[in-house]
From TrEMBL:
Xref: InterPro entries: YjbR (IPR007351), YjbR-like_sf (IPR038056), YjbR/MT2646/Rv2570-like (IPR058532)
Family annotation (PANTHER family): CYTOPLASMIC PROTEIN (PTHR35145:SF1), CYTOPLASMIC PROTEIN-RELATED (PTHR35145)
Molecular function, one GO term: DNA binding
Name by which UniProt lists this protein: MmcQ/YjbR family DNA-binding protein
Organism: Rubritalea tangerina
Organism lineage: Bacteria, Pseudomonadati, Verrucomicrobiota, Verrucomicrobiia, Verrucomicrobiales
Residue ranges of coiled coil: none
Keyword list, A-Z: DNA-binding
The UniProt record lists the keyword Heme: no
Length: 125
């Protein structure tokens, strides 16, 4: 097991990406992270084990699930396109950050051209 990862660290990482906002459209328990109004991450800090749902390319999602017990089909999400990542200390921080960035990038690529170009210009600096 690697060093335990705190949910607050992953939230801080999400919030450090350009134009990210934290909202609670599903009630006060679910923290949703959006870029240009589109969700790329969600977590319930009161849920145990502590986890985060992240969007993922379907092929990579399957690879991650096969390779890591802490990566599961997305809880309450489209299981083809979302993973639930359990923050139990078994995943390297670099991999968690890569999964967050991947989720963010998938959503950014689906934005309207003007929004996508604006966000990418800030992110790629």
């Amino acid at each position: 097991m690697s060093e335990s990862v705190d949910l607050a660290e992953m939230i801080e990482y999400c919030m450090g990406l350009p134009e990210v906002e934290e909202v609670t459209p599903f009630g006060p328990d679910a923290l949703v992270y959006k870029v240009a109004g589109k969700m790329f991450a969600v977590t319930d800090p009161g849920r145990h084990p502590v986890s985060m749902n992240l969007k993922c390319d379907p092929d990579w999602a399957l690879e991650l699930r096969d390779a890591h017990d802490a990566v599961e089909p997305g809880w309450h999400m489209n299981k083809r396109h979302w993973n639930t990542v359990v923050l139990d200390g078994s995943l390297e921080v670099a991999l968690l950050q890569r999964m967050i960035e991947h989720s963010y990038e998938l959503v950014v690529q689906g934005l309207k051209k003007a929004d996508r170009e604006r966000v990418l210009a800030k992110w790629r600096k």
